[in-house]
Specification:
With 1506 residues, this protein is mainly alpha-helical. The protein has 72 helices and two strands. Helix 11 runs parallel beside helix 15, helix 37 crosses helix 41 and helix 69 packs antiparallel against helix 70. It is globular.
Length: 1506
């Protein structure tokens, strides 16, 4: 041993031994048990540490490779299991402090060289040292080393984040560990000045830089996910904790106070107090101002840091008496921002837009902290501190307004915060604020629009509450009347601002609103109107002023009969002034004859826009006031009777009746200017025309011709712009209507007022509206994704809204015309045929010479609508003409389908058809006439039967097209006019046409039969067939004939021609085979259901239909056999096969039963058929475990097994029900089978297990139960949840309904088997352990209900079936039951308005169960008398803590009364003596009520009981 010891030691120390050999020897010595050294581990650690230290002290000169291997050796030792075991056993092993210095130096080198290569091992060593307490002492005992380490690691992390390289996890894990160690040491230090010095001297700058880089980093997929999601957030939190504890300890507040309040310092000096030499604020400012990072980053780092430091300062020191100190800290930190230089006259251009955004964001955060902490008290600042805060904020506001930054959202938010602090801060500069932040601000982007609106809304609310709204709008008017900054200012009121203005106007006194309006009108009359002619600038100002007038008049509270008369009188005078002082002068300007080139002048266009906007506003408001206020007298009352002028009777419409003194010729000039551009003028003309229509309709005798001309004028006004198809979203502001927003505004007006316009427009105009509706809907489908993100109104949104509304079906003319336009659009999408009209069925469905819905359109053809009789009878030949045409079209479609000459569609045409079908799906089909429903059916049938896709088309697109057509046909069949199609078509012809077309189309789908879209298509196809066949049978007209024809067609279909006999599979069409099987299955299913419902009197009909099905069954068998032979190995069975075989088996099994036979399956089933079922069963069992989560296979497969297992004699060979159980177990063990999949097939699984267990032998039953106990149902759930234990499952709320409730139900079911089955009492008592782990609080109501019922059922089962166990385990029972009582008390406490009655019903049911348990214990468990006092004590103790809802309390009180029946006098005395004072009072009340109500009632009942 000594030789070994001395040999190793000498070799490690020897200069002759190579370093490679030394390292090998050291590794061997560490791991080998044959190497004996006294204190071997410490010796080896000392050796490697000493070597590394000597190398870094230049005492040894080692090459880099050897140094790296030494670090690796140290790392392996530190992380070895051997070392950890030795330390756990209590052995003392340590490292020298010098190794910590070496590690820090190595990291320092990496920082200075800006390379992080070859430091991974050092970081590993560092991680191992810091995570091992006995080694970590080298850092924790010398805090300076730990601070140095933390500083170096922060710098390394900053370098990594600043580089373009991906961020790794190692460095940040070590950094997070180092932070944790330092925070632990920091909390233990008693000298706050020393901690402050450590933080400011070494950690503040790297920590702030690191936090900034972590915050702003644009993380990529290459970055480590753990760093991105967890460590970055954790490290930022640690930095905040470090700064809070290091810079802002309670002991340092006096230093902050002395430095921030110089006058306080003087007072302290006078008193002889000790003055601190620490200047914490100055130290922090110096740190922030020094160059600790790149210049490009410095400003952003400081801006991001000042708000953090101020937040931490406030968290530590913000109290009412310290608010002035907090303010001075704010001012000093603001001084660190580059914004503060602007207050001293710095140049604005020294900040880039990005810098402005960063600085303003920091200022916003600082101001937000000031506001939320309530630092600024206006009165205190004025009285005690000479408005020091107010002065600072004023300078701040002036700086913000002087250097306007309307493109930056934070600029608006800063101003909003200043107003929130005190509106007087910005009030002296209100005009500049209104100008730069509102009237002249170009905040068009959504990100700046919202904060701008928030700022203006704050101004509205502030000045509204102060009743200084006129003052605000006086400044608005002043700004508007200044020379415009730009030719076209942005609109004054956006849609959002208009809403906010309305809220304020509803709260303001009417006289203040009138003051504002009078001010604007007066300014218009005196300043703008005289100078508007020829001046574009004045015209723009006029438009701005009038848009404000419009906004106020439209959003103020209307006059009514309770409005004071002086207000009414002022309003009348105001409207008179507007008319005489603004409208009439403008109209005179517009009436002047002008040359053509002058008509396009900007000033003239704006004057026209303003004039007509004011006319419309004036008319609308005047009409409203006249209707709502009896005291109001219109300024135009003298000409109110002249509403219908001669001009209207002459065939064109005039509005000059509203404007006294305006001649017809002059009005035409005004209209000519207005109609020359798509502008607000044109839109206002439409609004005025609509207003005129409303006024005519309100008269006793309406002028029909005037209404027709007015409606035609409105539609004609926008026809040319709508036909261009170019439009942009509109925000609803009339004053901003342009060439591109006018179509949207016009369409909005038309659609919003269709109920008024529609009765008075011609059929051509109805077609025009329907056409625009269709065109915009087609655009809407193309732009659906973009529309969802657009908040404004668009033509597409308007049209979609109309289609979804309930109004369109009520407008039958438009509804039917829209259908016709849709059919026309379908015909234009399809390629033009070169054959005779027989080949063009769709063109015949919109022929103009056919009266498709004459009964609806007839009233529109007469001139005098109001005189048409309500019951318009049409000649029978006219009605029959449309049906004859439909019949002709139907025959044409069937003929084309049989001839096999479909129209070929390109992919673009297919996409267009799909878009039109989407629009078709929006129609309310039940609102159509029977003839229109038939037209719809024929269109869809034609698309389905007479078209085919070109070879280059996407197969998935074609599948979607066919599925959509089938789905819409089903919707038509479900409607009330479903039978109308049989007037023109035989059912068998429809089925044959559909089947033929689908067989033809199926040739495309042979290679995509596994995609989900194919299964969806098959489902739609099956659903269509089922619904259609069901309808044929329910009509009971030619049922046999239709079925015979259809069946003979099906039997003749052979999609596998030639392929069965030969091995060549060229002609085999698996898609058509699946379609055929689906058809057979559906036909059998529908007919079988019908036969089962037939009464015994009609058994002859049943025999006839059964005979019809025999060839179908034979063909079905042949198809299934061929499909099974041709199926691809290692692939799941096609979806269509399984239901087909299931249907066959059901039919075979029901065949003998129908005739009253009682035979074995082998006697009535043909042997080949039995073989088919057995082969199919074997294949299902093979494929079932491999199906994964494919529900489209699993559900029908389990349905087949359910039917198959119902006849045990069918099992092939020696197989038994156990094989099915084993296959299901393997299926459920697949990780792909999630909880959701199990829930989706729960019903099918249950049915299979019922059949298995119901028809198996005793031995098979035990075998299946063993499979269940091995984890048939739950194993996969445990795998998903990492084999969670029951207790953990209870703690996961998502598992309550999935695992906990079923476990409780199972336990209750087992306990109900009684003592005969559960012989061992210990097994019963185990149930209490389960109950005590289950949570009863913080559950969703559904989960609470299930858990409560489950626990109650387990306890009730024990009470009823295991009374002996109950007495021995009484404490456990009482504990479990008491948890139920406590939970129902908690849930049933009074909560004011209970809100949801369904929820309260659940609580009442739970309370009733508790009452039932109390009653049962008292009635049946006499031996429980000894526990009665304890149960009462538990109850009253909980009752004292809550106030129960009366209904819940009634149930619980009734239950506890029965327990009090068990209490004897000694128990009552014991309770009175032992209960605490508060609880005792509750018990006394309870016992008094018991004696008064329950005991008296009970004694009374006993008196009359025999």
């Amino acid at each position: 041993m000594a030789a070994i010891y001395s040999g190793i030691y000498l070799k490690l120390k020897s200069a002759k031994t190579s370093w490679e050999d030394k390292l090998k020897l050291a590794r061997f010595a560490w791991i080998s048990h044959q190497c004996f050294l006294p204190n071997k581990e410490q010796v080896l650690l000392d050796w490697v540490s000493h070597t590394l230290v000597s190398n870094y002290n230049k005492k040894l000169e080692l090459n880099d490779e050897v140094v790296e291997k030494l670090w690796t050796y140290l790392d392996n030792v530190i992380h070895s299991r051997r070392l950890q075991d030795l330390l756990k056993s209590g052995k003392t092993i340590g490292l020298s402090f010098s190794i910590a210095q070496v590690i820090n130096e190595r990291l320092s080198e990496a920082c200075s060289q800006k390379t992080q290569q070859n430091i991974g091992t050092v970081l590993n060593c560092c991680s191992g040292i810091l995570s091992t307490p006995s080694l970590c002492i080298i850092y924790t005992a010398k805090c300076e080393l730990l601070v140095d380490l933390l500083s170096k690691l922060c710098k390394l992390a900053c370098q990594q984040l600043s580089s373009d390289n991906a961020v790794g996890c190692q460095l940040f894990s070590v950094l997070q560990l180092t932070f944790a160690q330092y925070l632990l040491i920091q909390r233990q230090q008693t000298n706050p000045n020393r901690v402050f010095g450590q933080v400011t001297g070494h950690l503040l700058q790297p920590c702030l830089l690191l936090r900034h880089l972590l915050t702003v980093r644009a993380w990529t997929q290459a970055d480590d996910n753990h760093v991105r999601q967890h460590l970055s957030r954790e490290i930022r939190n640690q930095i905040e904790t470090l700064l809070q504890a290091g810079l802002f300890q309670a002991e340092l507040f006096s230093s902050y106070k002395e430095e921030l309040l110089p006058e306080q310092e003087v007072q302290e000096k006078k008193k002889g107090a000790f003055k601190s030499l620490l200047l914490p604020v100055n130290t922090v400012q110096t740190n922030l101002s020094s160059d600790f990072c790149e210049l490009a980053l410095h400003g952003a780092v400081v801006a991001g840091s000042v708000s953090l430091l101020y937040k931490l300062f406030l968290d530590s020191y913000c109290k009412a008496e310290n608010h002035l100190v907090c303010f001075h800290m704010f001012s000093r930190l603001f001084g660190c921002l580059r914004l503060s230089d602007l207050q001293q006259g710095g140049r604005e251009d020294m900040l880039s837009p990005v810098d402005w955004s960063t600085e303003l964001l920091a200022l916003e955060q600082l101001l937000s902290l000031v506001l939320s902490s309530d630092i600024y008290n206006v009165a205190s600042d004025r009285i005690r501190h000479k408005e020091v805060q107010f002065g600072f904020y004023r300078k701040l506001a002036q700086m913000l307004l002087t250097h306007s930054q309307a493109s930056i959202p934070a600029w608006f938010r800063c101003l909003k915060l200043l107003i929130s602090l005190n509106h007087l801060i910005v009030d002296p500069d209100l005009d500049d604020l209104v100008s730069s932040a509102w009237i002249d601000a170009e905040a068009s982007e959504p990100r700046t629009k919202k904060p701008q609106e928030t700022l203006i809304n704050t101004m509205f609310q502030t000045y509204s509450k102060l009743r200084q709204f006129p003052r605000l709008f006086e400044e608005v008017l002043t700004v508007i009347c200044r020379p415009a900054v730009d030719e076209l200012r942005p609109p004054i009121f956006s849609a959002g601002l208009t809403v906010k203005l309305r809220e304020c106007l509803l709260e303001l006194p009417p006289n203040q609103i009138l003051d504002i309006l009078c001010l604007f009108v007066e300014k218009c009359q005196t300043l703008i109107i005289p100078a508007v002619e020829g001046s574009a600038d004045m015209a723009l100002k006029l438009m701005a002023v009038c848009s404000v007038l419009h906004a106020f008049l439209f959003n103020m509270r209307s006059l009514d009969d309770v409005t004071p008369f002086p207000v009414v009188l002022r309003t009348q005078n105001l409207l008179a002034k507007i008319q005489k002082g603004i409208i009439q002068p403008l109209m005179k300007l517009l009436q002047v004859p002008r040359r053509e080139e002058e008509k396009s002048d900007l000033w003239l266009r704006k004057a026209s826009d303003t004039a007509l906007l004011l006319v419309y506003t004036w008319v609308e408001v005047d009409t409203l006031f006249g209707v709502s206020c009896s005291k109001y007298v219109s300024p135009t009352a003298e000409i109110a009777g002249a509403v219908t002028e001669p001009a209207a009777r002459q065939g064109h419409f005039s509005i000059s009746a509203f404007l006294p003194g305006l001649r017809e010729q002059s009005w035409e000039r005004v209209m000519e200017i207005a109609n020359s551009f798509a502008s607000p003028s044109k839109y206002c003309l439409e609004l005025l025309t609509l207003q005129k229509m409303k006024m005519i309709l309100m008269q006793a005798k309406a002028d029909l011709q005037a209404l027709q001309h007015a409606a035609a004028f409105i539609l004609e006004s926008g026809r040319s712009t709508m036909s261009r198809g170019e439009s942009e979203p509109w925000d609803g502001d009339i004053s901003v209507i342009s060439d591109l927003t006018y179509p949207t505004a016009h369409w909005h007006l038309v659609v919003s007022n269709l109920t008024i316009l529609l009765p008075y427009i011609s059929l051509e105009d109805v077609e025009y509206v329907a056409n625009v509706l269709l065109e915009t809907l087609m655009l809407a489908k193309a732009q659906e994704a973009a529309m969802d993100q657009e908040p404004s109104i668009s033509t597409e949104k308007i049209s979609l809204g109309l289609m979804h509304s309930s109004f369109l079906p009520e407008m039958k003319i438009l509804h039917c015309t829209f259908l016709t336009r849709l059919i026309i659009k379908f015909s234009t999408v399809l390629p033009t045929a070169t054959r005779d009209p027989v080949g063009l069925p769709l063109q015949q469905l919109f022929a103009s010479n056919i009266p498709w819905h004459e009964e609806i359109l007839a009233p529109c053809k007469t001139l005098d609508l109001l005189e048409v009789p309500s019951e318009t009878k049409l000649p029978k030949d006219e009605l029959s003409l449309s049906w004859k045409t439909l019949e002709k079209v139907a025959q044409c479609i069937v003929q084309l389908a049989k001839s096999g000459c479909p129209v070929t569609l390109k992919e673009s045409q297919l996409e267009s058809c799909l878009g039109l079908l989407d629009i078709f799906s929006l129609l309310k089909l039940d609102s159509f006439l029977p003839s229109d429903c038939t037209r719809c059916f024929l269109v869809l049938l034609s698309l389905l039967a007479n078209t085919r896709a070109s070879v280059s088309c996407s197969k998935l697109l074609l599948l979607k097209f066919l599925s959509t057509c089938l789905h819409l046909l089903r919707c038509l069949q479900a409607g009330r006019n479903a039978n109308s199609v049989f007037k023109v078509l035989h059912a068998s012809d429809v089925l044959e046409a559909v089947m033929t077309s689908q067989f033809t189309a199926s040739k495309f789908f042979s290679d995509i039969l596994t995609v989900p879209l194919w299964a969806q298509y098959l489902q739609e196809f099956q659903a269509f067939l089922e619904d259609f066949l069901q309808m044929v049978i329910e009509r009971r007209q030619s049922v046999r004939l239709n079925l015979e024809k259809f069946i003979s067609f099906l039997v003749s279909c052979k999609p596998d021609t030639g392929a069965a006999k030969s091995k060549d599979r060229k002609n085999w069409n698996p898609a058509a085979e699946q379609l055929l099987l689906t058809t057979f299955t559906t036909l059998c299913h529908v007919v079988t259901l019908y036969l089962q419902q037939l009464p015994e009197k009609k058994l002859h009909s049943a025999d006839v239909l059964s005979a019809l099905l025999e060839p179908v069954v034979l063909q079905m068998v042949r198809t299934v056999e061929h499909g099974l032979q041709s199926s691809t190995p290692n692939q799941l069975l096609p979806v269509a096969f399984i239901p087909s075989v299931t249907t066959l088996l059901k039919a075979d099994l029901s065949h003998p039963v129908r005739r009253g036979w009682q035979k074995e399956p082998s006697e009535f089933l043909e042997q080949p058929r039995i073989k088919l079922y057995q082969e199919f069963y074997s294949q299902i069992l093979r494929e079932l475990p491999c199906a994964g989560h494919n529900l489209q296979f699993l559900q029908p497969a389990l349905q087949f097994l359910t039917v198959f297992c119902s006849v045990p004699e069918l099992y092939p060979g020696k197989e038994t029900a156990v094989m099915v159980g084993f296959a299901i177990k393997k299926l459920l063990s697949d990780p792909a089978i999630t909880t959701q999949v199990i829930q989706s097939m729960e019903m099918e699984l249950t049915e299979v297990l019922v059949q298995l267990l119901g028809n198996c032998s005793v031995e098979e039953f035990y075998a299946i139960m063993r499979l269940v106990l091995q984890g048939l149902e739950l194993r996969n759930v445990w795998q998903q949840k990492a084999k969670m234990q029951t207790k953990e499952a209870c703690q996961d709320p998502s598992l309550i309904s999935i695992i906990v409730v079923p476990i409780l139900e199972t336990v209750a079911a087992l306990l109900r088997q009684g003592e005969g089955v559960l012989v061992n009492p210990h097994h019963v008592s185990l149930a209490f352990n389960i109950l005590l782990t289950i949570p009863l609080d913080h559950l969703k109501l559904e989960d609470y209900s299930g858990v409560f019922l489950g626990v109650h059922e387990v306890l009730f089962s024990i009470v009823q079936c295991h009374p002996k166990v109950l007495l021995k385990a009484a404490p456990s029972f009482l504990n479990s039951f008491h948890r139920l009582v406590v939970s129902v008390m908690h849930e049933g406490r009074q909560k004011g308005d209970r809100g949801n009655t369904d929820e309260f019903e659940v609580i009442l049911q739970c309370a009733h169960l508790v009452e039932r348990m109390y009653t049962h214990i008292a009635a049946e468990m006499e031996d429980f008398t000894v526990f009665s006092a304890f149960m009462v004590a538990q109850y009253v103790t909980e009752l004292q803590k809550v106030t129960l809802h009366p209904t819940v309390k009634t149930h619980l009180t009734e239950g506890i009364y029965h327990i009090l029946d068990l209490c004897i006098e000694r128990d009552i005395k014991f309770l009175n003596a032992s209960l605490p004072a508060g609880v005792r009072e509750v018990f006394k009340d309870l016992y008094n009520d018991y004696n008064h109500y329950h005991k008296a009632k009970k004694q009374g009942e006993e008196k009359y009981t025999a």
